[in-house]
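Quick start: load a record and inspect it. Here is Integron cassette protein VCH-CASS1 chain domain-containing protein:
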Amino acid sequence: MARHLRTNIEIDNFITKVIAEANHHAPNVAAIIMPISTAVRARLNLAVDKVEVYERNGNLARTCWVTVGGNRYTFTYNYSSGQIDLKAGSLQGFLRSSFDNHTPHAAISHQAARL
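Running the structure step on this input writes:
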């Protein structure tokens, strides 16, 4: 089930939680989460766009769906590659990009601009 995050405070709390968990379980992406969040949030208008996160048993997980301009995108951690994947639509959607701590900020900005 997805929980709709409606405010910047809710999004901030989610990002803080994801970074803390990445520091423990996925340090290869921990430093890139905030730059991704910042770039994507610069594109959002929370009055019309959506940020949703996977919720399991009342706890927020790390999968995040962002709908910008009517187009939905999924951010999820890929355990095989050790990267954050950006996919079009759903978890099974077309892979648009992958990110880790070595991804240049210009590449993140480029992908966010294409949302």
